[in-house]
Write a structure and sequence with these properties.
By secondary structure, chain A is mainly α. Chain A has two domains: 106 residues, Orthogonal Bundle (Arc Repressor Mutant, subunit A); 71 residues. Chain A contains seven helices and three strands, in the order αβααββαααα. Chain A has a three-stranded antiparallel beta sheet with strand order 1-3-2. At the A-B interface, helix 5, helix 6 and helix 7 of A face helix 5, helix 6 and helix 7 of B. Chain A binds a DNA duplex (28 and 28 nucleotides) through helix 3.
DNA sequence: GTTAGCATGTAAGGAGTTACATGATTTT
DNA sequence: AAAATCATGTAACTCCTTACATGCTAAC
């Protein structure tokens, strides 16, 4: 369950959920969401689209002839099966769902989900980050016993990283609180975009 | 030039540069440096060590029999060729050297480098991050022209990420300033660990 | 007595990149 | 006249993970 390749598939489904797009444009938007370092290549995107076509998650829209280049651009839209898969993946709680990319993609499409799912994703991410912090702090204690060689730069690197994670935890806590406030305002909300 | 697998090789060389270690212990230290999400598997580490052995970058130290487990642990140390390779990689300015992992590893072993190299790495990373920020800001302007659908969550995600990158840029700037101050104090410094 | 940690390794497979192939149009 | 952008696609390769195989000791 929860293959790794699902993260890109989820992003494609999410983007097409907002309207039909062709491959080239999809890649640009994808890179905006994945942002930071990762630049998805065509050699990865086009085969993924082909695969999703085969699985009937998306279909070709009656192709607009050709605007700029000689070759026609192929416009895709989600099928009903694709929409179902999108919602399934958004709500899924697999162990991969909290990694940086997977979390970022889910967060990006939060508007298309309900409050319950959002809370689950946000809290899951926070728990994951707190586990990491606990692990690092455990390591630090272990090192205090037998002084491993306290390297100035190595320590500074860890300090900066711990701070960044702590900051994200606070950010998540604020968001979780904001979602809970909404939850209180309306007992049952019509939240599905 | 600058294959991707060199990042782990560099980390191994850096750790062994501080003293001989066996595979199991190497993995633990590696995960401390790579930290955050990435957990290097044995299926990746042991073949890498074998490969580095073949390339004569490391050698087996006269194996300590066996402390806890039945099987002997194999202790490695760097060769002269390995040390040379370590310094070569640390100073290298290839396009991969500024990615998160590659930068983190180089930073972690800064104590084993000279001031010139440290400045090159820090400034390179900062330039890379500033390019990213410029790209994102360009995208934002492009979107203001034809309003793409301003999604609350998507905007919040980008805001948070931009802030994190801006924070790292400030961190880098402080470090660069600190290194420059040292540079001024001593015209020619004996900085090589 | 069962779980966690120590310790090394192999085989199969997944997810992605790089390099290649092709070619028109717009900007510099 | 060159470079960038538009637009799609394939083949080879790389790096890494997962799952498997093996077995001992310490802690709970």
């Amino acid at each position: 369950m929860a293959r790794r390749g699902e993260t890109i598939e989820l992003a494609v489904l999410g983007l097409l959920h907002e309207g039909p797009l062709h491959g080239y444009e999809l890649r640009k938007r994808l890179n905006l969401i994945l942002g930071w370092g990762r630049l998805l290549s065509y050699g990865s995107l086009y085969p993924t689209l082909k695969k999703m076509l085969r699985e009937r998650l998306i279909t070709e829209v009656d192709s607009v002839p050709a605007p700029v280049t000689g070759r026609p651009r192929i416009v895709y839209r989600v099928t009903d099966a694709g929409t179902a898969e999108f919602h399934r993946l958004m709500a899924e709680v697999g162990p991969n769902a909290w990694e940086d990319d997977a979390f970022g993609i889910r967060f990006n499409f939060f508007s298309s989900t309900n409050l319950e799912t959002r809370l689950r994703v946000l809290e899951g991410r926070r728990t994951r980050l707190e586990e990491r912090l606990a692990r690092v702090r455990g390591d630090l204690e272990g090192e205090q016993k037998r002084p491993v060689r306290s390297d100035h730069y190595a320590i500074e690197l860890r300090r900066q990283r711990v701070e960044a994670v702590e900051r994200e935890v606070r950010w998540l806590s604020d968001l979780i609180q904001a979602e809970r406030d909404r939850q209180d305002e309306r007992g049952t909300a019509p939240q599905t975009s």
